[in-house]
Amino acid sequence: MTVSGSTAMLRPRIPPVTPLGLFVTAVCLVALPLLAWSLGALFVQPTAYGVNRLVIVLLVLGVVLGEMVQVEVALRDAGAAALTLSTTFTLALIFVAPLGLVVLAQAIPLVVDDVKRGKHWSRPVFNLAQYVISAAAARGTFSLIAGQEFFTPRDFASSEVGAAMVASLVYLLVNMGLVVTVIALAGRQLQLSRLWADLRQQFTTAGPMVAMAPVFLAVTDFSLWLLPLLLIPIAAVQAISRLALEHRDSARHDPLTKLPNRSYFLLQLDQTLAARPSGANPVAVMFIDLDHFKEINDTLGHEAGDSLIRDIGHRLRSAATAEVTVARLGGDEFAVLTELPAGEQPPLAQAIALAERLGSTLDEPVSVAGVRLEVRASIGIALAPQHAQGSADLLAKADIAMYLAKGNGGGVAVYDPSKDENTTERLVLLTELHDALGRPDSDQLTVYYQPKCDTHTGQVVGAEALVRWRHPERGLLGAEKFIPVAETAELITQLTLVVLEQAIRQARVWLDQGRWLGVAVNLSVRHLADVRLPEQVNEMLTRHRVPPALLTLEVTENTVMTDPHRAVAVLAMLRAGGVKIAIDDYGTGYSSLAYLKRLSVDELKIDRSFIIGMTSDDNNQIIVKSTIELGHNLGLRLVAEGVEDAETWRHLQTLGCDVIQGFTAQPPLPAPEFDDWLRRWDADQREAAIVDLRLRPPATTSELVAAAPATSAPSAARPPKVTPATTAAKTRPSSSSRHARPARQTGKPA
Questions:
Q1: Residue 241: Cβ within 10 Å count
Q2: pLDDT at residue number 187
Q3: Which of 113, 173, 335, 343 has the least C-beta neighbours within 10 A?
Q4: Domain that holds residue 145
Q5: pTM above 0.70, yes or no
Q6: Count: domains in the chain
Q7: What's the CA angle centered on 607, arms 606 and 613, to 5 degrees?
Q8: What is the CATH number of the domain that holds 382?
């Protein structure tokens, strides 16, 4: 044949040689002479039957009908094996009939069924070879133990039940061993431990069927009328197997969407990664999270939320091909698993295209409870082996990528190691924090206090409790170093209780010193969802004999809006107990005047981002002024955070702010040093009011004294303080070296 001016021989395409192909070929080659030998013996000795013909007919009928009735048996992995009810009758035939008859009785319905189902020719050929070898092994074992000839069976005696049991076990082991080996080789992974595990599992189901064969023959020797009774345990095995399979499927699928659940998804991911040979195409995992689902659920109710989840699950499943696994992990989280074949597009581009296609299926509005909703999702992508090799690690990387997508306003994001904070150092820090919380006597976790001063008089009216960690090796750690770790590891609740305990105890110390100083503690989002918190706080206050009015619990707008209904209920119980509530970092989150009214808060803390530079930024000054006016109109006390210079203090005084907090008064200090500073502040206050009049127009000494507040128990009278103490200012650290408060997370007990 000539091709483009050159001659070439046309050669047939030879399929590649695989371990699976070699094994199937070997099984067929072993079975072929056994098949020929047994059929030949059948025609040479056609009358060689060991029991009466009626029993033989019944057994053959049982084999044929049993092959038509299959029971699916749940396997250890995600699959299921087909167990035929013909097994009992086949084994009984092996012990009393020529081997050729056994082969014919089983082969004919088996081959007909496989051809009818359109299976590849290799499937019925292998199945026939499998049964020939299994039957020959069982017949040979029985003949050897019972002293019978291989091709000439005779009457079955009750004394041969033991030999039949051993032969049945051999049949089961050979038959199941061949099947399990093929399954393992088809998965490109042959492991002895897995073979043994699968054999044990299938033996528990097929074992009773096999054990019935000798009993069947013993009963026929006694009376044929008892044979129908043997169908009862066989039917029971079938029913139990069906129930077990249904139970397994129910345990592995989400009842709402009928999609695979988290455990089943991880199992499938494990199998996919295990079956993936070195250098094969990558595997992609996608983590899908619906945006603002919680708001929909809270507004329209859980039934509407369930309806939406069902619709989303159906859309995702419909948009995916048969090779793509879509699962519901829980809540509003879904996951996708797919292998990325070699093609024109790079694997990552294929994954992104699939993610975008899945995301686009959600663009069409959905009607829930009579409300038309637009649903968006954030999708994170991680690839194996590029990003991770284990199933749990790969899903975690996709989860991290999903949060990157959320941070970008939704859409699709690929895992980026440079933006992954889940480092080894972070895990070590988490372990060390857990140990520190477990040893409260070590005093590693301690509370620093930053004063809150009356804007007009300079009097210290309270202090905010800020947690610090005296790490034995890392030194003093600010809250921003470990609060995010505590939040992600769910240690934040325990840490907040530690801070509350120390702060309330310190309030008692101040009371004993004659000081009426309140303490403020930040609450995390987890505590706002914990209905036990009011009882825990009340127990601490009662134990330390501290009036509830001396405790202020600070929450951010974002923590409240995470679960507003639960937060409102918890805060209402706290406030009913006399505890004060403050909104921290006001103006930076999802502000809601309606929730301000419902929460009945006592205090608004204006975020430092508006305070710092307000003297040079007119917009910030307008925002601060408006917030102060709003708070006063609602009857709230206004606190300005981040006051770092006297000029800002003066502006806040002019605007009518009630309390200031910041480095211009004093950075956070541990309790003993705070007490020392407080005594100096009290002593310096009158001198500062007379000598350093920077915060208000000059006044006479008599005016200053007249302006001093009257003595009120239990706090001693303090002259007006109008500027930070000079001595304190000299030791004030620079901005770069201060222990900053933690970055805003979902909440902070710092």
A1: 20
A2: 59
A3: 343
A4: 19-251
A5: no
A6: 3
A7: 100
A8: 3.30.70.270
